[in-house]
Amino acid sequence: MTPGLDAALLDGAMGRALELAAAAVEWGDTPIGAVVLGADGAVLAEAANEREKRGDPTAHAEVLALRAAARVHGDGWRLTGTTLVVSLEPCTMCAGASVLARVGHVVYGADDPKAGAAGSLWDVVRDRRLNHRPQVTSGIRAEESATLLRAFFRRQRGL
Question: May I ask the CATH class of domain 7-153?
Answer without folding.
Answer: alpha beta
